[in-house]
Amino acid sequence: METRIIGTTNNFENVEDMMKFARACARVCYTEKDFQNVMEEDDKNQLTDRLVNSGHHSVFEHNKINFYFNRIPKILAMVLNNERPYATSEKSARYTKMEDINHNQKRLYDKWMEKLKPAISEVYPQIDDSEARDRKITKLAQENARYMTSVFTPTKMVYSLDLRQLNFIRDEFKKFNKDLFEDSDEGSEKGLNRFNSRLTNSMYEFLSQTGKFEVPGLTNQTDRHLSIFDNKDNDYEDYEEHFGDTYSTTYKMSFAALGQAHRHRTIDYKIVDGPNKEEQRLGFFVPEIVKYLGNDAEKEWEEDLSSVSENDYPQAELIAVNERGTRDDFRSKMILRMCGHAQWEIMKNTTKTAEKYAEQDENFNYPIAPKCQQNMKCASSCDWGGKKALERIV
What we know:
This protein is α+β, with helices and mostly antiparallel strands. The protein is built from 14 helices and 8 strands. A 4-stranded antiparallel β-sheet has the order 1-2-4-3. Strands 5-6-8-7 form a 4-stranded antiparallel β-sheet.
């Protein structure tokens, strides 16, 4: 993994300048002086220690850092993208062809690209621009073929966060690594499996490449953990399901779908069962377009994924995820994901959750329909149209 700093608040190049800026922000609370005057004064470094030791860490959030991560494992990007606040711009496996992948996975990716294109062409709407139609079919084939690739596949992204959050993440990465090797009550190594070991190696790389921004003592002050992983021993069936002003529901989705879902940053997502927990393997997601090809194709799809999963974790691998939020926030998700532009798996998952919500919450009065059928303007044209947006199979 390669890490580059492509921007910071005021173009600060070192953590000392960031500390001075944070101290100036803190002093605003107690001075009548203008901020620029405060910044130009010689101040006392001891204030940094007082701020850190007192837990008054919010002043460090004024410092923003923009990273460019090249060849970052997809799963590590997902861990980062589940922590808030942040901003991210990540290479799309939907709009770009996967190249930097394992040889066998590349072979399977290319194979399914070619198998899926004719099937998608059969069901995709006819439009006047045949070249544009071919491009869209290719993108949909890419979107589905990428399920064959590892969740550890290297990707690239721009990632922005504040200094406090960076130190929180660094602290939690250290704890995650430490916890993996702690002995359990039975005296065995806890959680030390292949998935966690590989993720740990990626976290070590992150820690080594962001160390220049470490502020001693600027650590998590609560008992929170990395939000993407459930730290309980419950089975996913034990999680409460309810729908009202707030909601909680747990269901299976692929790694790829979670990578889409947790971009809704007002909703919480947590893996409650999967390979991070004692190598739990829950099966594979089978796209509807593969089922369209028939039973033999579906069997071949699962056999190919099984071959990948012998030594890796394909993005089609199913994980149990708990989703929590408010009714209003779920409404926003419906508007964005129950749409002809949305990837099929998250569209279908969102529609199913909306149907559950409508059944169990008498105050859920939202139409279960695309926004274009609710007199809302869509930013771009859709070839499916409102009627087929939720009925499509790709």
